[in-house]
Amino acid sequence: MSMFREAKEGAIGIRKQKRADLVAEELKRLITQRNLKPGDKLPHEIKLQQMFSVSKSTIREALKSLEVQGLISVSTGPSGGATIVEVPLDRTFQLMQNYLFFKDVGIADVYTVRRLLEPELAAGAIPHLTEDDFLALERTIDLCDPASQAAAGTKMLDQRQEDLTFHDILAAANPNPMLRFCCELINEMIRQLVVFGNETPACEHERFGAANVVFHRRIVAAARARDAEAVRSLMSAHMEECTHYVTRMNGRVHGRLVLDSEMTRRTWLKPSETADKA
Predict the structure, then answer these.
(1) Which fold has domain 2-84?
(2) pLDDT computed for residue 91 by the predictor
(3) CA-CA distance, 205 to 145, in Å (whole number)?
(4) Which of 44-53, 91-100, 233-242 bottoms out in mean pLDDT, i.e. has the lowest?
(5) What are the start and end residues of each CATH 1.10.10.10 domain in the chain?
(6) For a surface tag, which of 22, 160, 181, 260 has the fewest beta carbons within 10 Å of its beta carbon?
(7) What is the pTM of this model?
(8) Residue 41 has what pLDDT?
(9) Which part of the chain is the HTH gntR-type domain (predicted)?
Protein backbone atom coordinates (compact mmCIF):
# COMPACT_ATOMS: atom_id res chain seq x y z
CA MET A 1 0.00 0.00 0.00
CA SER A 2 1.51 3.32 -1.12
CA MET A 3 0.13 5.26 1.85
CA PHE A 4 1.85 2.81 4.18
CA ARG A 5 5.17 3.24 2.34
CA GLU A 6 4.78 7.03 2.45
CA ALA A 7 4.09 6.90 6.17
CA LYS A 8 7.21 4.81 6.71
CA GLU A 9 9.33 7.19 4.65
CA GLY A 10 7.87 10.24 6.37
CA ALA A 11 8.78 8.81 9.74
CA ILE A 12 12.46 8.62 8.80
CA GLY A 13 14.30 11.65 10.18
CA ILE A 14 11.58 12.32 12.74
CA ARG A 15 11.72 9.16 14.82
CA LYS A 16 11.96 5.49 14.11
CA GLN A 17 8.51 3.96 14.38
CA LYS A 18 7.83 0.28 14.74
CA ARG A 19 6.08 -1.34 11.82
CA ALA A 20 3.17 -2.25 14.07
CA ASP A 21 2.73 1.43 15.03
CA LEU A 22 2.66 2.41 11.36
CA VAL A 23 0.09 -0.28 10.61
CA ALA A 24 -2.04 0.93 13.53
CA GLU A 25 -1.93 4.46 12.08
CA GLU A 26 -2.99 3.16 8.67
CA LEU A 27 -5.84 1.21 10.23
CA LYS A 28 -7.08 4.42 11.84
CA ARG A 29 -7.01 6.06 8.41
CA LEU A 30 -8.91 3.11 6.98
CA ILE A 31 -11.59 3.39 9.70
CA THR A 32 -11.93 7.11 8.95
CA GLN A 33 -11.95 6.80 5.16
CA ARG A 34 -14.50 3.97 5.14
CA ASN A 35 -16.58 5.75 7.80
CA LEU A 36 -16.75 2.54 9.83
CA LYS A 37 -19.13 2.50 12.78
CA PRO A 38 -19.35 0.45 16.00
CA GLY A 39 -20.24 -3.10 14.98
CA ASP A 40 -18.43 -2.94 11.64
CA LYS A 41 -15.53 -5.33 11.15
CA LEU A 42 -12.01 -4.75 9.90
CA PRO A 43 -10.68 -7.13 7.23
CA HIS A 44 -9.42 -10.48 8.54
CA GLU A 45 -5.79 -10.82 9.62
CA ILE A 46 -4.72 -12.53 6.40
CA LYS A 47 -6.23 -9.74 4.31
CA LEU A 48 -4.53 -7.11 6.49
CA GLN A 49 -1.19 -8.91 6.08
CA GLN A 50 -1.62 -8.72 2.32
CA MET A 51 -2.70 -5.08 2.41
CA PHE A 52 0.33 -3.94 4.40
CA SER A 53 2.87 -6.63 3.39
CA VAL A 54 3.73 -7.40 7.00
CA SER A 55 3.84 -10.48 9.21
CA LYS A 56 1.02 -11.92 11.29
CA SER A 57 2.76 -10.84 14.50
CA THR A 58 2.96 -7.23 13.25
CA ILE A 59 -0.74 -7.20 12.42
CA ARG A 60 -1.63 -8.65 15.82
CA GLU A 61 0.54 -6.08 17.59
CA ALA A 62 -1.15 -3.27 15.66
CA LEU A 63 -4.61 -4.62 16.47
CA LYS A 64 -3.65 -4.95 20.13
CA SER A 65 -2.62 -1.28 20.14
CA LEU A 66 -6.03 -0.24 18.79
CA GLU A 67 -7.76 -2.52 21.29
CA VAL A 68 -5.90 -0.90 24.19
CA GLN A 69 -7.01 2.49 22.88
CA GLY A 70 -10.61 1.27 23.01
CA LEU A 71 -11.21 1.54 19.25
CA ILE A 72 -11.72 -2.15 18.49
CA SER A 73 -12.57 -5.44 20.14
CA VAL A 74 -10.70 -8.55 18.98
CA SER A 75 -12.29 -12.00 19.19
CA THR A 76 -10.94 -15.40 18.17
CA GLY A 77 -12.48 -18.28 16.22
CA PRO A 78 -13.67 -18.76 12.63
CA SER A 79 -16.06 -15.81 12.79
CA GLY A 80 -13.76 -13.71 14.97
CA GLY A 81 -11.64 -10.73 14.10
CA ALA A 82 -11.48 -7.03 14.88
CA THR A 83 -14.76 -5.20 15.42
CA ILE A 84 -15.10 -1.43 15.71
CA VAL A 85 -16.42 -0.37 19.12
CA GLU A 86 -17.37 2.95 20.67
CA VAL A 87 -14.52 4.16 22.88
CA PRO A 88 -15.75 3.53 26.44
CA LEU A 89 -16.08 6.42 28.87
CA ASP A 90 -13.97 4.67 31.50
CA ARG A 91 -11.01 4.47 29.12
CA THR A 92 -11.39 8.16 28.30
CA PHE A 93 -11.61 8.95 32.00
CA GLN A 94 -8.41 7.01 32.66
CA LEU A 95 -6.53 8.99 30.00
CA MET A 96 -7.94 12.27 31.32
CA GLN A 97 -6.92 11.41 34.87
CA ASN A 98 -3.43 10.42 33.73
CA TYR A 99 -3.18 13.93 32.31
CA LEU A 100 -4.67 15.64 35.39
CA PHE A 101 -2.45 13.61 37.72
CA PHE A 102 0.35 16.06 36.96
CA LYS A 103 -1.88 19.13 37.36
CA ASP A 104 -2.98 20.92 40.52
CA VAL A 105 -6.71 20.20 40.32
CA GLY A 106 -8.72 20.99 43.44
CA ILE A 107 -12.31 20.38 44.49
CA ALA A 108 -13.15 24.03 43.76
CA ASP A 109 -12.03 23.55 40.15
CA VAL A 110 -14.28 20.52 39.72
CA TYR A 111 -17.36 22.21 41.16
CA THR A 112 -16.78 25.45 39.25
CA VAL A 113 -17.17 23.46 36.03
CA ARG A 114 -20.14 21.52 37.43
CA ARG A 115 -21.97 24.74 38.31
CA LEU A 116 -21.56 25.91 34.72
CA LEU A 117 -22.50 22.71 32.91
CA GLU A 118 -25.07 20.80 34.98
CA PRO A 119 -27.90 23.37 34.69
CA GLU A 120 -27.60 23.35 30.89
CA LEU A 121 -27.31 19.57 30.80
CA ALA A 122 -30.49 19.11 32.83
CA ALA A 123 -32.50 21.73 30.93
CA GLY A 124 -31.49 20.23 27.59
CA ALA A 125 -32.54 16.75 28.70
CA ILE A 126 -36.13 17.73 29.58
CA PRO A 127 -37.81 17.24 26.16
CA HIS A 128 -36.18 13.82 25.79
CA LEU A 129 -36.92 12.19 29.14
CA THR A 130 -39.13 9.09 28.89
CA GLU A 131 -41.33 7.52 31.55
CA ASP A 132 -38.63 4.91 32.14
CA ASP A 133 -36.16 7.75 32.72
CA PHE A 134 -38.48 9.33 35.28
CA LEU A 135 -38.95 6.03 37.08
CA ALA A 136 -35.16 5.54 37.16
CA LEU A 137 -34.65 9.07 38.53
CA GLU A 138 -37.24 8.45 41.23
CA ARG A 139 -35.63 5.12 42.11
CA THR A 140 -32.26 6.82 42.76
CA ILE A 141 -34.02 9.31 45.03
CA ASP A 142 -35.76 6.56 46.99
CA LEU A 143 -32.45 4.78 47.53
CA CYS A 144 -31.08 7.95 49.15
CA ASP A 145 -34.13 9.13 51.10
CA PRO A 146 -33.90 8.20 54.82
CA ALA A 147 -37.71 8.14 54.95
CA SER A 148 -37.89 5.58 52.15
CA GLN A 149 -38.00 1.83 52.77
CA ALA A 150 -35.75 1.37 49.73
CA ALA A 151 -32.96 3.26 51.52
CA ALA A 152 -33.02 0.97 54.60
CA GLY A 153 -29.60 -0.60 55.04
CA THR A 154 -28.07 1.31 52.13
CA LYS A 155 -24.54 2.43 52.94
CA MET A 156 -23.72 6.12 52.91
CA LEU A 157 -21.17 5.71 50.11
CA ASP A 158 -23.68 3.79 47.99
CA GLN A 159 -26.17 6.61 48.47
CA ARG A 160 -23.65 9.13 47.18
CA GLN A 161 -23.13 6.89 44.14
CA GLU A 162 -26.89 6.95 43.57
CA ASP A 163 -26.83 10.75 43.78
CA LEU A 164 -24.42 10.73 40.84
CA THR A 165 -26.52 8.15 38.98
CA PHE A 166 -29.35 10.71 39.08
CA HIS A 167 -27.13 13.08 37.10
CA ASP A 168 -25.99 10.30 34.75
CA ILE A 169 -29.62 9.60 33.80
CA LEU A 170 -30.12 13.24 32.88
CA ALA A 171 -26.87 13.18 30.92
CA ALA A 172 -27.95 10.11 28.95
CA ALA A 173 -31.14 11.91 27.87
CA ASN A 174 -29.36 15.05 26.67
CA PRO A 175 -28.80 14.98 22.88
CA ASN A 176 -25.69 17.20 23.00
CA PRO A 177 -22.80 14.69 22.87
CA MET A 178 -20.15 17.21 23.94
CA LEU A 179 -22.11 18.41 26.98
CA ARG A 180 -23.03 14.84 27.91
CA PHE A 181 -19.41 13.73 27.60
CA CYS A 182 -18.08 16.53 29.83
CA CYS A 183 -20.67 15.96 32.56
CA GLU A 184 -20.27 12.18 32.57
CA LEU A 185 -16.50 12.58 32.90
CA ILE A 186 -16.94 14.93 35.85
CA ASN A 187 -19.35 12.47 37.49
CA GLU A 188 -16.83 9.67 37.06
CA MET A 189 -14.09 11.87 38.48
CA ILE A 190 -16.20 12.60 41.58
CA ARG A 191 -16.97 8.89 42.00
CA GLN A 192 -13.40 7.74 41.87
CA LEU A 193 -11.28 10.64 43.08
CA VAL A 194 -13.19 12.85 45.53
CA VAL A 195 -12.66 11.90 49.17
CA PHE A 196 -13.64 13.45 52.49
CA GLY A 197 -11.60 13.86 55.64
CA ASN A 198 -11.93 11.16 58.29
CA GLU A 199 -12.91 13.87 60.78
CA THR A 200 -16.13 14.62 58.88
CA PRO A 201 -18.98 13.42 61.13
CA ALA A 202 -21.62 11.05 59.76
CA CYS A 203 -24.32 13.63 60.44
CA GLU A 204 -22.75 15.91 57.84
CA HIS A 205 -23.00 13.17 55.21
CA GLU A 206 -26.62 12.62 56.24
CA ARG A 207 -27.42 16.34 55.89
CA PHE A 208 -25.74 16.39 52.48
CA GLY A 209 -27.73 13.37 51.34
CA ALA A 210 -31.02 14.78 52.64
CA ALA A 211 -30.39 18.10 50.86
CA ASN A 212 -29.71 16.21 47.60
CA VAL A 213 -32.97 14.30 47.95
CA VAL A 214 -34.94 17.54 48.35
CA PHE A 215 -33.43 19.09 45.24
CA HIS A 216 -33.69 15.90 43.19
CA ARG A 217 -37.40 15.59 43.97
CA ARG A 218 -38.01 19.21 42.99
CA ILE A 219 -36.03 18.76 39.77
CA VAL A 220 -38.03 15.66 38.82
CA ALA A 221 -41.31 17.46 39.52
CA ALA A 222 -40.27 20.35 37.25
CA ALA A 223 -39.01 17.91 34.63
CA ARG A 224 -42.33 16.04 34.61
CA ALA A 225 -44.01 19.42 34.00
CA ARG A 226 -41.56 19.85 31.07
CA ASP A 227 -40.45 23.17 32.57
CA ALA A 228 -36.86 23.44 31.34
CA GLU A 229 -36.31 26.90 32.82
CA ALA A 230 -37.40 25.75 36.27
CA VAL A 231 -35.09 22.74 35.97
CA ARG A 232 -32.19 24.97 34.94
CA SER A 233 -32.79 27.25 37.94
CA LEU A 234 -33.17 24.35 40.39
CA MET A 235 -30.06 22.60 39.14
CA SER A 236 -28.06 25.81 39.44
CA ALA A 237 -29.16 26.19 43.09
CA HIS A 238 -28.48 22.48 43.66
CA MET A 239 -24.90 22.82 42.39
CA GLU A 240 -24.33 25.86 44.60
CA GLU A 241 -25.52 23.90 47.62
CA CYS A 242 -23.39 20.87 46.66
CA THR A 243 -20.35 23.12 46.49
CA HIS A 244 -21.15 24.46 49.96
CA TYR A 245 -21.52 20.98 51.48
CA VAL A 246 -18.45 19.48 49.82
CA THR A 247 -16.32 22.44 50.91
CA ARG A 248 -17.65 22.30 54.48
CA MET A 249 -16.99 18.55 54.61
CA ASN A 250 -13.36 19.06 53.52
CA GLY A 251 -13.84 17.26 50.24
CA ARG A 252 -10.72 17.02 48.11
CA VAL A 253 -9.52 15.46 44.88
CA HIS A 254 -7.31 12.47 45.64
CA GLY A 255 -5.10 12.67 42.56
CA ARG A 256 -3.82 9.29 41.42
CA LEU A 257 -3.37 7.13 38.36
CA VAL A 258 -6.47 5.04 37.66
CA LEU A 259 -5.78 1.33 37.27
CA ASP A 260 -7.22 -0.84 34.49
CA SER A 261 -8.80 -3.07 37.14
CA GLU A 262 -10.83 -0.09 38.41
CA MET A 263 -12.35 0.78 35.07
CA THR A 264 -15.83 -0.67 35.41
CA ARG A 265 -18.33 1.61 33.75
CA ARG A 266 -21.23 2.26 36.03
CA THR A 267 -24.60 1.93 34.35
CA TRP A 268 -28.13 2.49 35.52
CA LEU A 269 -30.94 0.07 34.77
CA LYS A 270 -34.39 1.12 33.70
CA PRO A 271 -37.17 -0.35 35.84
CA SER A 272 -38.07 -2.85 33.11
CA GLU A 273 -34.45 -4.06 32.97
CA THR A 274 -34.34 -4.36 36.76
CA ALA A 275 -37.41 -6.55 36.64
CA ASP A 276 -35.82 -8.75 33.98
CA LYS A 277 -32.84 -9.35 36.25
CA ALA A 278 -34.91 -10.11 39.33
Answers:
(1) Arc Repressor Mutant, subunit A (1.10.10)
(2) 81
(3) 13
(4) 91-100
(5) 2-84
(6) 260
(7) 0.75
(8) 95
(9) 17-87
